[in-house]
Predict the structure.
Amino acid sequence: MMKNLIGNWEFAPIYTYQTGNWFTVQSGIDSNLNGDSGGDRGWVNAGGNPMIGSATTPLKNTAGDTVAYLVNNPAAGYVTTPRGALGTAGRNTERINPVNNFDVTF
């Protein structure tokens, strides 16, 4: 009984590190008007913060036609591509956070 209480213990530390995977920033709406929102990339604002995203507001002329788009937050690094436009973001432009984990079992 003493052997089982004091002995037979194991200590197993496990350290895991994995770099973050790359991903493509997508618009989230059907920007290219093909019937789905899959793969529709966002616009890139090179002077903006890549951690901030923004939507757009259509600007219309007196006839009611859309003539331009206004970015709601000019500090955003990525902008939702409006319907009927093509995004400028490339593939795999951002990376998720890495996994840095330490586990211990007894």
